[in-house]
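Pinned message: reference record for 3-dehydroquinate synthase
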Amino acid sequence: MELKVNLDKNSYPIYIESGILEKAEQYITQVFRGKRIMIISDDHVFPLYGQKLIQALPSFACSHLVLPHGETTKSFKTLPLIYTAMLENQITRSDLVIALGGGVIGDLAGFAASSFLRGVKLVQIPTSLLAQVDSSVGGKVAVDLPQGKNLVGAFYHPKLVLIDPDVLDTLPERYITDGMGEVIKYGCIRDAALFETLNSRHSFEDLKDQLSSIIYRCVDIKRAVVENDQFDTGERMLLNFGHTLAHTIEQYYHYERESHGEAVAIGMYQITRLSEKAGLSVPGEAERIRSVLNTYGLPFQCGLPVSDLTDAIKLDKKNLDNHLNVVLLHSIGDSYVYPTNLDFFKTAGMI
Ligand SMILES: NC(=O)c1ccc[n+]([C@@H]2O[C@H](COP(=O)([O-])OP(=O)(O)OC[C@H]3O[C@@H](n4cnc5c(N)ncnc54)[C@H](O)[C@@H]3O)[C@@H](O)[C@H]2O)c1
Ligand SMILES: O=C(O)C(=O)C[C@@H](O)[C@H](O)[C@H](O)COP(=O)(O)O
Ligand SMILES: [Zn+2]
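Predicted structure (tokens):
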């Protein structure tokens, strides 16, 4: 399956195919004419797929950097390590960085590629469900600061995205669940039929036969939204459904409790509950979301008082001038951006 993100000079193809990792050279040579490649990965993914990828790239001089797994690696503090490795491996603007891993590696290696020498070519090979359906596409790259998620970043598009659903066979169950948080998000914001498909199954196992087409559907929704609003000034904010609360929860617990997808699950349910209370969503939608989250083992409650969250909510990147923007649902599949303020959370009695 093939998709193309159409962004004039920044356009790029996305291929979704079982076993594509082993055919990487055939696709990479279509977008890259240089010789040197640096693969950035983590200590879970590289031992599983690193050598396989290097063997699949015989025409190139490949180096690699393996970082500790987990969100705390996606930090400003990791960047000097990456830049040093790039210098030691003589990476120039005519070379290529491959991000091989989940969303942490994709965002981090992507930001390093965007900033080193003011921009080195980037290919994304996402290996988690979340990275395959969301983070590898759209060009948002970033690192976290202690004050909040993704606070330093850029819009920097890859030259190519290679999605191999086979690598999900080794993904731990917790991160299958985590990825389902973003899959459910796509149903909520844009695709009531996708939401119904997810709702009609009893578990992830029950959905597996449709996995490639679900990945395709999510990526296609993201492609369309990003093509309309590359720089996140309007329609793209819809991809942030559930994220105002998700990011505050992740940061509050120092990235040690909920994973990103789990926090998004809580955020989607809670914001829809608040929005129903305020008469801004069709009644019953929060319960439908809670039920589908439950099917895939995702949480919906977090038990934090709003007073603990306000500082982080103020750092949300959707905030403009003196107002917050939250993403709400008229109904499942039909989302909108709602300008508001902190009172929205306070008066509705978060959480
Ligand atoms: N840029 C974007 O548009 C965007 C979108 C959504 C999320 N994100 C970011 O993505 C990050 C979360 O990504 P994630 O959920 O992939 O987390 P992650 O990168 O930490 O991966 C989850 C875990 O799975 C392991 N793993 C990954 N692929 C594997 C495989 N095939 N086999 C075995 N283990 C594997 C990793 O080592 C890690 O331990 C967050 O930082 C989030 O902010 C970015
Ligand atoms: O691509 C986007 O736009 C998104 O909002 C996708 C989100 O799933 C993702 O978590 C993104 O990194 C959040 O971006 P931020 O701008 O809120 O940091
Ligand atoms: Zn997200």
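Pinned by admin. Summary line: The longest strand covers residues 148-155.
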